[in-house]
Amino acid sequence: MGRVVVILTTAAAVVACSVATVMVRRRVKRRRKWRKVVGLLKELEESFETPLERLRQMVDAIAVEMQAGLVSEGGSKLKMLLTFVDDLPNGSERGTYYALHLGGSYFRIIRVHLGGQRSSLEVQDIERHSIPTSLLNSTSEVLFDFLASSLQRFIEKEGHESISSQDVKRELAFTFSFPVKQTSLSSGVLIKWTKGFAISEMAGEDIAECLQGAVDRRGLDIHVAALVNDTVGALSYGHYHDPDTIAAVVFGTGSNACYLERTDAIIKCQNPRTTSGSMVVNMEWGNFWSSRLPRTSYDIELDAESLNSNDMGFEKMIGGMYLGDIVRRVILRMSQESDIFGPISSILSTPFVLRTNSVSAMHEDDTPELHEVAAILKHLGVPKVPLKVRKLVVKICDVVTRRAARLAAAGISGILKKVGRDGSGEGVGRRRSDKQMMKRTVVAVEGGLYSNYKMFREYMDEALIGILGEDVARHVVIKAMEDGSSIGSALLLASSHSVRTISNI
Ligand code: ADP
Ligand code: MG
Question: What is d(CA 235, CA 445) in angstroms, rounded to the nearest whole number?
Fold first, then answer.
């Protein structure tokens, strides 16, 4: 009996020891895996780092590139496109105007009525629709017929008070969010598609003519009277409400900026013939490039797999179309190099499956158990990850978005430096007489990324203060303009009805 007890006790001890050994081994393995993940996270943080010193170097690089792009055509990756907009709306405009806005993800149609005073601006109707993905690589005819048919429906639902009953042709501004070489306020040719659009045989075509043709084929009584870059629309809207507005930036699917430049600084345009002595310049800043940009292996892979590789490098670090995909790439790499996310999900390997709105939802998840993060990961084929892994995902979102917002702040500061509103002196490529005390300076900002992503806004504001210093930043007002691009284009059309063609560029 005694021997049996001894044997059983020994056996139990052996089992206990083995179980303990297995558990310890597992724990050691788990710790090792976690340490690997912590190492990967550290690497990630380092490669995405944007210290102030580096941001300031970028500010200088942007101002220098802006100058180079103004001196000669092709002088910089920044195209610094002329817009032929010199007088911005001021509130005195009158009449009823339309705008059709083709963005990267949405198109919008609006009708505004202007009564001659700022306070009488009335947005009578506004429609916002997702752009069907089938259009992105369709044909010019399909795209413009789709836009014309949407316009037709918009007009058909107008009531009796509509402009048509007064027998006046409708005047429409076409707000276009892709690079165009303008030949006048009402015409311009497409330089290239961006943001995932790939409609062949359109580069070099007059965009306003394409829309007018589609509108005419449907027999609509609409005159496409202005072709307006979306940033220029936002600037117009900003200026309408606040004359201190000197620049506008869009943070939506893509990113771009425009600003008011003195004509004597636009050296590549010999005779801009503006009455105001200034002209709005569309920077097309999405294509900015500098060796100071913190380019990581994720950016390189994203670019290589994109439809427009070696192009739009800045946009690919800050545009809403891309942030989700950068986060996806980081999670995928971590799941390949450690199994903390479980078996590798095939969904996670699909480009663009993680959208930036999901990134902000995860980043701003304030539930103690991070339920939102868990739900989004589940959608990505990564169910049931422990809380510490969910926290890691939040951290990844933070790292990617913080870099984007800080680079965005450097971009804005670059414009301020160029025009001498960064507190450092007279500006780049401007006469010494421009040196002046820091004036109140308003930058209009528009776009779904900016308006919907609080952490992006907060990081951008923080970096602006860091770059400019509190004393200067106090004079810089960032003003959010919802639907500013569309409304502002209609305002711009109202304010500059006369169309001039300048050919001596
Ligand atoms: P468009 O680029 O077509 O003019 P928007 O300015 O509305 O349209 O921007 C849409 C983009 O904004 C989306 O593609 C997405 O990248 C980003 N976005 C929209 N909602 C959110 C959100 N909640 N959080 C973060 N980004 C968002
Ligand atoms: Mg937009």
Answer: 8
What is the percent of the chain where pLDDT is above 70? 89
**Ligand 1 closest atom vs CA 323:** 16
Task: State yes or no: pLDDT of 464 exceeds 60.
Answer: yes
CB atoms under 10 Å from CB of 190, counted, come to 20
Whether 296 contacts 48, CB under 8 Å: yes
Confidence of residue 339 (pLDDT cuts 50, 70, 90): confident
- Name the DSSP class of 345: P
Spatial distance between the Cα atoms of 293 and 313, rounded to a whole number of angstroms: 9
Interval 101-151: pLDDT, tens: 999 999 999 999 999 998 889 999 999 999 999 999 999 999 999 999 999
CB burial class (10 A; 0-12, 13-18, 19+) of residue 412? Answer: buried
Tell me how far the alpha carbon of residue 176 lies from the centroid of ligand 2, in angstroms: 9
Q: What is the pLDDT of residues 29-62, one digit of tens each?
A: 677 788 888 999 999 999 999 999 999 999 999 9
Beta carbon of 452 within 6 Å of any ligand 1 atom = yes
Cα dihedral 257/261/265/267 (nearest 10): 60
Distance CA 366, CA 384 (A): 19
* Burial grade of 374 (CB within 10 A; 0-12, 13-18, 19 or more): buried
How far is it, in rounded angstroms, from Cα 394 to Cα 385? 13
Tokens describing residue 273:
């013939």
For a ligand 1 pocket test, name from 253, 325, 453 the mutation site with the most ligand atoms within 8 angstroms of its C-beta: 253
DSSP 176: E
pLDDT tens per residue, range 174-219: 999 999 999 999 999 999 999 999 998 888 889 999 999 999 999 9
| Centroid of ligand 1 to alpha carbon of 21 (angstroms) | 52
**Closest residue (by CA) to atom 14 of ligand 1?**
253
CB 88 within 8 A of CB 444: no
Our answer on whether the CB atom of 105 is closer than 6 Å to any ligand 1 atom is yes
Tell me the pLDDT tens digit for each residue of 356-365: 999 999 999 9
pLDDT at 504: 29
Q: 263 CA to middle of ligand 1, Å? A: 34
Q: Is 451 in the pocket of ligand 1 (CB under 6 A)?
A: no
Distance between Cα 301 and ligand 1 center (Å): 23
The three-state secondary structure class of 313 is coil
Distance 485 CA to ligand 2 centre (A): 7
Q: In what order do the strands lie in the sheet with 278-282?
A: 81-82, 278-282, 255-262, 245-251, 441-446, 476-480
| Type of residue at 93 | E
- Structure pTM? 0.92
The string of DSSP letters for 410-448 reads HHHHHHHHHTT-SSSSS-SSS-GGG--PPPPEEEEEE-H
